[in-house]
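Design a sequence for this backbone.
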């Protein structure tokens, strides 16, 4: 791949392209992580709050078989309730572990002691500075366009620019709304060490989501997403209230967004959501996705997603430097 795509992150991890597959719980298992890593990026395992530690080792073996660097994503707020996850992640010996959304600092030293790089997602400049002070190796500047969970605040480009200025000696990945080579080229030109990409991989056959989910996601447009807590409340998942999630808007979010207190006590509504999830009825069931979802128009293998994105980005950057 072109030299214009080489960054501090690709050099340190031995990647061909500066693309990290976001650790999407329920989507990013060993098959997707292995496929992304084999294609030259960094595949990651997405560990949910209730994921048993054994799952991490099982899925990591699929990724290790690819003989490429990979990573694991943990939720900081869930570690006290599922303490075996950290040990399983360390035992799996990935190149990088991200610990985000909550108090991550206690986990930095154990990961470093095991020779593992640490990343965390941030939504403000202050959070980026705190992360560097805590010893975090890679900062993920997560804009509000991003799919799935995170704080709601600045958009990706304003946040990325501010974070790059604030922590100039630490590799920064841009997350949120980056679904094509144009987005990758833009953040690399700004100085990012790479892109943290989730939504673009939602249509991959290697993903752990259902084919019906992939079909619905490929038909969606970027204007169809909503940032909300209703899907967590309806499923009884105890995400801290400061972390909502960006998902496809549907009948359930239309009914309950803005009425979260009433939803919390409405057991019938909870059953509606759980039944819809079981039936894969996406008029009610949740599908997390970012504002880049409009670029997802067909189901493509992960290797093709990585190659198309990297090739377009390289062409754009080379064209810019040649003029």
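Sequence:
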């Amino acid at each position: 791949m072109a030299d214009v795509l080489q960054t501090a992150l690709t050099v340190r991890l031995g990647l061909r392209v500066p693309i990290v597959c976001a650790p999407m719980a329920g989507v990013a298992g060993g098959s997707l992580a292995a496929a992304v890593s084999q294609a030259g990026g960094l595949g990651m395992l997405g560990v949910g709050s209730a994921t048993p530690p054994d799952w991490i080792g099982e899925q990591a073996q699929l990724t290790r078989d690819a003989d490429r660097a990979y990573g694991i994503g943990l939720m900081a707020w869930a570690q006290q309730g599922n303490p075996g996850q950290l040990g399983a992640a360390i035992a799996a010996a990935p190149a990088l572990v991200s610990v985000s959304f909550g108090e991550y600092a206690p986990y930095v030293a154990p990961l470093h002691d095991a020779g593992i790089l640490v990343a965390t997602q941030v939504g403000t400049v202050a959070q980026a500075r705190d992360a560097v002070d805590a010893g975090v190796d890679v900062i993920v500047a997560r804009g509000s366009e991003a799919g799935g969970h995170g704080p709601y605040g600045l958009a990706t480009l304003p946040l990325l620019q501010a974070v790059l200025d604030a922590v100039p000696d630490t590799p920064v990945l841009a997350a949120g709304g980056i679904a094509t080579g144009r987005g990758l080229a833009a953040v690399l030109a700004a100085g990012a060490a790479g892109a943290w990409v989730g939504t673009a991989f939602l249509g991959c056959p290697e993903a752990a989501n259902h084919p019906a989910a992939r079909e619905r996601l490929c038909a969606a447009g970027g204007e169809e997403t909503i940032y909300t807590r209703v899907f967590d409340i309806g499923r009884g998942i105890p995400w801290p209230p400061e972390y909502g999630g960006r998902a496809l808007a549907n009948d359930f979010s239309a009914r309950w967004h803005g009425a979260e207190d009433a939803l919390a006590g409405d057991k019938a509504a909870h059953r509606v959501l759980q039944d819809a999830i079981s039936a894969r009825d996406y008029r009610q069931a949740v599908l997390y996705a970012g504002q880049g979802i409009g670029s997802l128009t067909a189901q493509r293998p992960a290797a093709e997603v990585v190659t198309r994105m990297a090739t377009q980005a390289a062409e754009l950057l080379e064209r810019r430097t040649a003029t």
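The chain has a mean pLDDT of 96.
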